[in-house]
């Protein structure tokens, strides 16, 4: 400030210097305002606010920027984590913001306890690892180009070597269904093309149709059942014959015993018993021919 005659005004210069000095002092809240608004305005961005002067002379206070929102997808991409598009330039500031939000040194909760945003220590640590992996890809032009073209470097949030990625993709291609990896001759390639295009001929029966095979199978089952039933009937018939033969022998023995008791004397029956015990049923000597009675004395 100058007077009309061009001499400087020291009072005005002192007031201007005092205002500039005050503008550079960090803006702090009073005790009442701290109780009302809290010690910090953002849960993750611990910044100090300064009272600055705009170009038009009006004071303007810097406010803390809101925390970046984590994507809702289960497996976010690096672009979703940094909230940017594939063609957008890389921003180091977004990495700093995310790193400050999820850095392990800023954890205050212990164990499985949740913070004011409902996040556990393990969740924030996992997010921090994803942020570092995403920054490693997006900050490197070569890795970013490989990720944009082939999707390399981002498998479940882990950055792997290019050779490992290529080996994994080659193994997946070889083991995929209907893969041409095992085609060795032109016949294999023709069959593979037919399967791929859906022009493969229908399978023809080699020996007989399905209906004929079912008829033959049913006939075999019927023959087997008939053979089992016939064998069971024959066994039953043999058992019945053996039982009848045994009954007939018992009947004949009882009949002969009764006839001998009725027609033979006591001495003749004793001689017949001794004869059967000694020789059994001798075929050369009929059973009906009894030994002669000894003459009576």
UniProtKB/TrEMBL annotation:
Keyword Transmembrane: yes
Domain of life: Eukaryota
Organism, scientific name: Pyricularia grisea (Crabgrass-specific blast fungus)
Protein name (record): J domain-containing protein
PANTHER family named among the record's database cross-references: CO-CHAPERONE PROTEIN DJLA
Gene3D superfamilies for this protein: DnaJ domain (1.10.287.110)
Domain J: 77-151
Keywords of the record: Membrane, Transmembrane, Transmembrane helix
């Amino acid at each position: 400030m100058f007077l009309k005659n061009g001499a400087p005004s020291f009072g005005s210069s002192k007031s201007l210097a005092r205002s500039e000095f005050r503008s550079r002092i960090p803006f702090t809240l009073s005790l009442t305002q701290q109780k009302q608004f809290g010690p910090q305005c953002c849960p993750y961005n611990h910044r100090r606010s300064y009272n600055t002067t705009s170009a038009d002379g009006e004071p303007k206070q810097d406010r803390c920027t809101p925390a970046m929102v984590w994507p809702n997808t289960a497996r976010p991409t690096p672009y979703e984590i940094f909230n940017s598009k594939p063609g957008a330039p890389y921003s180091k500031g977004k990495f700093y913001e995310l790193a400050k939000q999820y850095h392990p040194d800023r954890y205050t909760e212990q164990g499985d306890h949740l913070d004011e945003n409902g996040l556990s220590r393990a969740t924030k640590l996992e997010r921090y690892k994803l942020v570092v992996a995403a920054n490693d890809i997006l900050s490197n032009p070569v890795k970013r180009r490989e990720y944009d073209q082939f999707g390399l470097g981002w498998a479940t949030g882990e950055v792997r070597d290019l050779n490992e990625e290529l080996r994994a993709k080659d193994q997946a291609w070889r083991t995929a269904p209907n893969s041409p990896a095992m085609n060795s001759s032109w016949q294999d390639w023709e069959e593979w093309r037919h399967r791929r295009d859906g022009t493969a001929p229908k399978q023809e029966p080699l020996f007989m149709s399905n209906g004929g095979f079912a008829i033959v199978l049913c006939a075999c089952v019927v023959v087997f059942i008939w053979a089992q039933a016939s064998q069971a009937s024959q066994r039953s018939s043999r058992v019945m014959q053996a039982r009848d033969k045994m009954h007939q022998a018992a009947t004949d023995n009882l009949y002969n015993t009764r006839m001998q008791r009725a027609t033979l004397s006591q001495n003749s029956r004793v001689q017949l018993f001794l004869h059967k015990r000694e020789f059994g049923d001798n075929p050369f000597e009929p059973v009906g021919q009894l030994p002669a009675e000894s003459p009576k004395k």
